[in-house]
Amino acid sequence: MIPNASDLEIFLVTSDRITQPDVLAAYLALLAPEERVRHDRFLNERARHEHLVTRALVRTTLSRATGVPPEAWRFTANSHGRPEIAAPAGFEHLRFNLSNTRGLVACAIAQDRQVGIDVESLDRGADLLEISDRFMAPAEAADIRACPEADRAHRFFTYWTLKEAYIKARGLGLSIPLDQFAFDLGDPSVPRVTFDPALDDDAGRWAFARYQPTGRHLMAVAVERHPGEADLRPRIHRVVPLVGDPVPVEPTAPVTTIKDDDPRSARPHMIV
Q1: Helices 45-66 and 21-30 meet at what angle, rounded to 10?
Q2: Is the pLDDT of residue 227 over 50?
Q3: What's the gap between Cα 138 and its chain centre?
Q4: 8-257: CATH, from 3.90.470.20, 3.40.50.720, 2.40.440.10, 3.40.50.1370
Q5: How large is the average pLDDT for residues 14-18?
Q6: What's the pTM value of the predicted model, to 2 decimals?
Q7: Which ranges carry the 4'-phosphopantetheinyl transferase N-terminal domain (predicted)?
Q8: Distance (Å, rounded) from C-alpha 238 to C-alpha 245?
Q9: Picking from 71-85, 138-152, 221-235, which range would have the lowest pLDDT averaged per residue?
Q10: Which element (helix H / strand E) includes 167?
Q11: Is the pLDDT score of 262 beyond 90?
Q12: Integer CA distances (angstroms), 20 to 2, 115, 243, 271, in order
């Protein structure tokens, strides 16, 4: 259970390790009809697998927090695509956000506050300089360009995950121009943000943290801060949906490389 509104929890799944047919069949059985239709539309097998694991993760995460059966959840999306709880009624205080990339799925859950999360793979092929010059704030783009080539992808995706986490927490998607807010990474433990006046937001409203969950992934989380709160330190867990219990991972300080171990056996007992 999430004991109070100040808690933020993050659940991570190493999705490419979930290959057992009985586990995947159990995930399929959780899907609502509209989720199953979307699942079946994926032509790419990896994308279909990531979608299935993501849906299983959000359902089981919400169920662990509430006691509601995982198959009972129904979801909707706001006008910018942010997923929200549609049913059962009575859980309007719960906020969650999802992200997946090649090999990793993440779910953040909080109460009575907006939250956004993003995970990215460092081995994504892209012209990082062109993207940063085109979309990021000038100071961010200059910082990325000044990085040695060997470090450039890490710096680019550090900024990118923070930006994605923020716009997802706002629930406004890419209607927020990415160059209207900028992060300062001078203090590696606490990313700081500044907003263009046109964006009409207050930096004191938000807390951010960033992590390296595996050797090839970066993650950032943005969470709405209530008045008087200090910087938040999420509790992070590794989990295989429907299989065993979540395993806390330490340390929880920002800018942490989280040990990429799976403590479970290759074929654990499935909880149904």
Answers
A1: 70
A2: yes
A3: 26
A4: 3.90.470.20
A5: 97
A6: 0.90
A7: 24-108
A8: 9
A9: 221-235
A10: helix 149-170
A11: no
A12: 30, 32, 11, 14
Q: Is the dihedral of CA 127, 133, 150, 185 positive or negative?
A: negative
List, in order, residues 6 or more apart from 217 with CB less than 8 Å away.
101, 103, 104, 119, 120, 121, 122
Q: Where are the domains of the chain?
A: 8-257
Amino acid at site 27: Y
Residue type at position 36: R
Q: How wide is the angle at C-alpha 45 spanned by C-alphas 76 and 116, nearest 5°?
A: 35
DSSP state string for 46-115: HHHHHHHHHHHHHHHHHHHHH---GGG-EEEE-TT--EEEEESTT-TTEEEEEEEETTEEEEEEEESS-E
214: nearest Cα among 243, 256, 253: 256
Confidence of residue 241 (pLDDT cuts 50, 70, 90): very high
pLDDT at 106: 98
Crossing angle between the packed helical segments 33-41 and 45-66, to the nearest 10 degrees: 160
Phi and psi torsions of 152, nearest 5°: -65, -45
Question: Is residue 15 within 8 Å of 49, Cβ to Cβ?
Answer: yes
The confidence score (pLDDT) of residue 233 equals 77
With beta carbons less than 8 A apart as the criterion, state whether 186 and 230 touch. Answer: no
Instruction: Report which DSSP code applies to 122.
Output: T
What residues have CB less than 8 Å from 19, skipping those under 6 apart?
none
Instruction: Establish how many alpha carbons lie within 13 A of residue 233's alpha carbon, considering only the half-sphere containing its beta carbon.
Output: 10
Packed helices 149-170 and 138-146: angle between N→C axes, nearest 10 degrees:
150
Q: Looking at the chain, which runs of residues are DSSP E strands?
A: 8-13, 74-77, 83-87, 94-101, 104-111, 115-121, 181-184, 192-195, 206-214, 217-224, 235-240, 243-248, 256-257
CA distance 189 to 120: 19
